[in-house]
Amino acid sequence: MGNRPRGDRLVTLAEPQALRALASLHLLSPAIPLLWMGEEWGSRTPFHFFAGFRGDLAEAVRQGRTSDFQGFPGFLPHLDDMPDPNAEETFAASRLCWEDLSKEEHEDWLAYYELLLTLRHTALVPRLAGLAGNDARGSLRDGTAATLSWTLADGAKLTALLALGPDPAGGFDPPAGDLLFETPEGASAGFQADGALPGWSAAWFMTEGKLTRG
After folding, report:
1. Do 19 and 204 form a contact (C-beta atoms < 8 A)?
2. Which of 197, 142, 154, 153 lies closest to 175 in space, CA to CA?
3. Three-state SS across 12-72?
4. How far apart are CA 116 and CA 99, in angstroms?
5. Which helix (H) or strand (E) holds 108?
Protein backbone atom coordinates (compact mmCIF):
# COMPACT_ATOMS: atom_id res chain seq x y z
CA MET A 1 0.00 0.00 0.00
CA GLY A 2 1.62 3.22 -1.10
CA ASN A 3 0.82 6.88 -1.41
CA ARG A 4 -0.37 6.60 -5.02
CA PRO A 5 -2.32 9.25 -6.97
CA ARG A 6 -5.50 7.18 -7.08
CA GLY A 7 -5.04 5.15 -3.90
CA ASP A 8 -4.69 1.83 -5.73
CA ARG A 9 -4.12 -1.20 -3.56
CA LEU A 10 -1.49 -3.77 -4.51
CA VAL A 11 -4.13 -6.48 -4.83
CA THR A 12 -5.42 -4.63 -7.92
CA LEU A 13 -1.96 -4.20 -9.43
CA ALA A 14 -0.08 -7.44 -8.84
CA GLU A 15 -0.57 -11.15 -9.37
CA PRO A 16 -2.03 -12.91 -6.31
CA GLN A 17 0.94 -15.28 -6.02
CA ALA A 18 3.34 -12.34 -6.01
CA LEU A 19 1.46 -10.78 -3.11
CA ARG A 20 1.40 -14.07 -1.23
CA ALA A 21 5.17 -14.46 -1.49
CA LEU A 22 5.77 -10.89 -0.34
CA ALA A 23 3.19 -11.18 2.45
CA SER A 24 5.13 -14.14 3.82
CA LEU A 25 8.29 -12.02 3.83
CA HIS A 26 6.42 -9.26 5.62
CA LEU A 27 4.79 -11.44 8.30
CA LEU A 28 7.43 -14.11 8.92
CA SER A 29 10.53 -11.93 9.22
CA PRO A 30 11.41 -10.83 12.77
CA ALA A 31 10.63 -7.14 12.18
CA ILE A 32 7.35 -5.83 13.60
CA PRO A 33 4.74 -6.19 10.81
CA LEU A 34 2.20 -3.50 9.95
CA LEU A 35 -0.94 -4.33 7.97
CA TRP A 36 -3.02 -1.75 6.15
CA MET A 37 -6.71 -1.87 6.99
CA GLY A 38 -8.44 -4.38 4.73
CA GLU A 39 -5.19 -5.87 3.43
CA GLU A 40 -5.76 -9.07 5.37
CA TRP A 41 -8.89 -9.91 3.39
CA GLY A 42 -7.84 -8.63 -0.03
CA SER A 43 -9.80 -5.38 0.00
CA ARG A 44 -9.85 -3.60 -3.36
CA THR A 45 -11.31 -0.38 -2.00
CA PRO A 46 -8.86 2.43 -2.88
CA PHE A 47 -7.36 4.35 -0.02
CA HIS A 48 -6.97 7.95 -1.11
CA PHE A 49 -4.99 10.74 0.47
CA PHE A 50 -7.65 12.86 2.15
CA ALA A 51 -7.74 15.88 4.44
CA GLY A 52 -10.27 18.41 5.74
CA PHE A 53 -8.47 21.67 5.09
CA ARG A 54 -10.05 24.85 3.76
CA GLY A 55 -8.91 28.06 2.11
CA ASP A 56 -5.25 28.62 1.25
CA LEU A 57 -4.06 25.50 3.06
CA ALA A 58 -6.50 23.32 1.09
CA GLU A 59 -5.23 24.77 -2.19
CA ALA A 60 -1.62 24.31 -1.10
CA VAL A 61 -2.31 20.65 -0.37
CA ARG A 62 -3.92 20.18 -3.80
CA GLN A 63 -0.95 21.73 -5.56
CA GLY A 64 1.50 19.90 -3.36
CA ARG A 65 -0.02 16.54 -4.22
CA THR A 66 0.37 17.25 -7.93
CA SER A 67 3.93 18.54 -7.66
CA ASP A 68 4.97 15.59 -5.49
CA PHE A 69 4.21 13.15 -8.31
CA GLN A 70 5.84 15.13 -11.13
CA GLY A 71 9.09 13.24 -10.62
CA PHE A 72 7.44 9.84 -11.18
CA PRO A 73 6.79 9.31 -14.92
CA GLY A 74 4.54 6.32 -14.30
CA PHE A 75 2.12 8.48 -12.32
CA LEU A 76 1.86 11.37 -14.78
CA PRO A 77 -1.14 9.94 -16.74
CA HIS A 78 -3.14 9.78 -13.50
CA LEU A 79 -2.61 13.33 -12.26
CA ASP A 80 -5.39 14.98 -14.27
CA ASP A 81 -8.07 12.89 -12.60
CA MET A 82 -6.47 12.58 -9.15
CA PRO A 83 -9.17 12.97 -6.48
CA ASP A 84 -9.32 16.28 -4.63
CA PRO A 85 -7.83 15.48 -1.19
CA ASN A 86 -10.17 17.95 0.51
CA ALA A 87 -13.40 16.70 -1.07
CA GLU A 88 -15.75 14.75 1.17
CA GLU A 89 -16.35 12.19 -1.59
CA THR A 90 -12.61 11.38 -1.59
CA PHE A 91 -12.85 10.42 2.07
CA ALA A 92 -16.09 8.52 1.50
CA ALA A 93 -14.58 6.51 -1.38
CA SER A 94 -11.85 5.28 0.98
CA ARG A 95 -14.24 3.53 3.36
CA LEU A 96 -13.86 -0.23 3.22
CA CYS A 97 -16.36 -2.02 1.03
CA TRP A 98 -17.01 -5.54 2.27
CA GLU A 99 -18.41 -6.65 -1.08
CA ASP A 100 -15.69 -5.56 -3.52
CA LEU A 101 -14.67 -9.22 -3.96
CA SER A 102 -16.66 -12.41 -3.81
CA LYS A 103 -17.13 -13.94 -0.37
CA GLU A 104 -14.90 -16.84 -1.40
CA GLU A 105 -12.06 -14.53 -2.50
CA HIS A 106 -12.20 -12.52 0.70
CA GLU A 107 -12.22 -15.71 2.79
CA ASP A 108 -9.25 -17.09 0.85
CA TRP A 109 -7.12 -14.02 1.55
CA LEU A 110 -8.21 -13.91 5.19
CA ALA A 111 -7.35 -17.58 5.70
CA TYR A 112 -3.89 -16.98 4.23
CA TYR A 113 -3.16 -14.04 6.52
CA GLU A 114 -4.53 -15.92 9.54
CA LEU A 115 -2.20 -18.82 8.70
CA LEU A 116 0.84 -16.54 8.51
CA LEU A 117 -0.05 -14.67 11.71
CA THR A 118 -0.69 -17.91 13.60
CA LEU A 119 2.65 -19.28 12.42
CA ARG A 120 4.35 -16.06 13.48
CA HIS A 121 2.72 -16.28 16.91
CA THR A 122 3.65 -19.90 17.54
CA ALA A 123 7.02 -20.29 15.81
CA LEU A 124 8.62 -16.82 15.88
CA VAL A 125 7.29 -14.70 18.73
CA PRO A 126 8.59 -17.03 21.50
CA ARG A 127 12.05 -16.71 19.93
CA LEU A 128 12.10 -12.91 19.65
CA ALA A 129 12.24 -11.84 23.30
CA GLY A 130 15.60 -10.22 23.95
CA LEU A 131 16.57 -10.19 20.26
CA ALA A 132 19.08 -7.39 19.74
CA GLY A 133 18.13 -6.09 16.30
CA ASN A 134 16.60 -8.03 13.44
CA ASP A 135 18.97 -7.41 10.55
CA ALA A 136 18.99 -10.13 7.92
CA ARG A 137 22.06 -11.63 6.35
CA GLY A 138 21.66 -12.68 2.77
CA SER A 139 22.25 -12.35 -0.91
CA LEU A 140 20.35 -11.31 -4.04
CA ARG A 141 21.01 -12.86 -7.44
CA ASP A 142 19.74 -11.68 -10.81
CA GLY A 143 17.52 -9.15 -9.09
CA THR A 144 14.90 -11.73 -8.10
CA ALA A 145 16.43 -14.71 -6.26
CA ALA A 146 17.16 -13.95 -2.63
CA THR A 147 18.36 -15.90 0.39
CA LEU A 148 17.83 -14.25 3.78
CA SER A 149 18.63 -15.55 7.24
CA TRP A 150 18.19 -14.36 10.80
CA THR A 151 19.61 -15.69 14.07
CA LEU A 152 16.83 -15.46 16.65
CA ALA A 153 17.13 -14.81 20.37
CA ASP A 154 17.20 -18.50 21.31
CA GLY A 155 19.85 -19.30 18.72
CA ALA A 156 17.46 -20.72 16.13
CA LYS A 157 18.25 -19.83 12.52
CA LEU A 158 15.42 -18.66 10.28
CA THR A 159 16.06 -18.80 6.53
CA ALA A 160 13.92 -17.61 3.64
CA LEU A 161 14.49 -18.63 0.03
CA LEU A 162 12.66 -16.24 -2.29
CA ALA A 163 12.00 -16.24 -6.02
CA LEU A 164 10.63 -12.72 -6.43
CA GLY A 165 9.91 -12.71 -10.12
CA PRO A 166 7.66 -14.48 -12.62
CA ASP A 167 10.34 -16.97 -13.75
CA PRO A 168 11.81 -19.92 -11.84
CA ALA A 169 15.00 -19.18 -9.92
CA GLY A 170 17.80 -21.66 -9.30
CA GLY A 171 21.15 -21.87 -7.60
CA PHE A 172 19.89 -21.93 -4.02
CA ASP A 173 22.13 -23.59 -1.45
CA PRO A 174 20.47 -26.13 0.83
CA PRO A 175 19.18 -24.28 3.91
CA ALA A 176 19.61 -25.47 7.46
CA GLY A 177 16.58 -26.66 9.40
CA ASP A 178 13.13 -27.98 8.62
CA LEU A 179 10.56 -26.52 6.27
CA LEU A 180 8.42 -24.01 8.19
CA PHE A 181 6.25 -22.58 5.40
CA GLU A 182 6.05 -22.39 1.63
CA THR A 183 3.99 -20.61 -0.96
CA PRO A 184 2.68 -21.86 -3.28
CA GLU A 185 2.12 -25.29 -1.79
CA GLY A 186 4.82 -27.66 -3.02
CA ALA A 187 7.21 -24.86 -3.99
CA SER A 188 10.11 -26.45 -2.13
CA ALA A 189 9.70 -29.83 -3.85
CA GLY A 190 11.59 -28.64 -6.91
CA PHE A 191 14.20 -27.04 -4.71
CA GLN A 192 14.86 -30.33 -2.98
CA ALA A 193 15.46 -31.88 -6.39
CA ASP A 194 17.51 -29.27 -8.26
CA GLY A 195 17.95 -26.21 -6.07
CA ALA A 196 15.28 -24.20 -7.90
CA LEU A 197 12.03 -22.52 -6.92
CA PRO A 198 9.08 -21.58 -9.15
CA GLY A 199 8.39 -17.95 -9.91
CA TRP A 200 6.85 -15.84 -7.16
CA SER A 201 7.48 -18.34 -4.41
CA ALA A 202 8.93 -18.46 -0.93
CA ALA A 203 10.22 -21.29 1.21
CA TRP A 204 10.98 -20.78 4.91
CA PHE A 205 13.18 -23.03 7.06
CA MET A 206 14.08 -23.00 10.76
CA THR A 207 16.60 -24.82 12.92
CA GLU A 208 16.03 -25.69 16.55
CA GLY A 209 17.30 -23.12 19.03
CA LYS A 210 20.46 -23.86 20.94
CA LEU A 211 19.40 -21.92 24.01
CA THR A 212 16.85 -22.98 26.60
CA ARG A 213 13.64 -21.00 26.40
CA GLY A 214 11.38 -20.48 29.39
Report:
1. no
2. 197
3. HCCCHHHHHHHHHHHHHCCCCCCCCCCHHHCCCCCCCCCCCCCHHHHHHHHHHHHHHCCCC
4. 24
5. helix 103-119
How would DSSP label each residue in 154-166?
TS-EEEEEEE-SS
pLDDT in tens, 155-209: 999 999 999 999 999 888 888 899 999 999 999 887 767 788 999 999 999 998 7
The per-residue pLDDT for range 97-154, each reduced to its tens digit, is: 877 678 888 899 999 999 999 999 999 999 998 887 667 788 878 788 999 999 999 9
Spatial strand order of the sheet with 201-206 comes to 137-141, 145-151, 157-163, 201-206, 178-183
Question: In this structure, how many other beta carbons lie within 10 angstroms of the beta carbon of residue 17?
Answer: 17
* Torsion sign over Cα 10, 12, 16, 18: negative
Q: What are phi and psi of 194, to 5 degrees?
A: -135, 15
Residue among 21, 23, 27 nearest 200 (CA): 21
Task: Calculate ∠ Cα 125-122-124, nearest 5°.
Answer: 35
| pTM for this model (two decimals) | 0.85
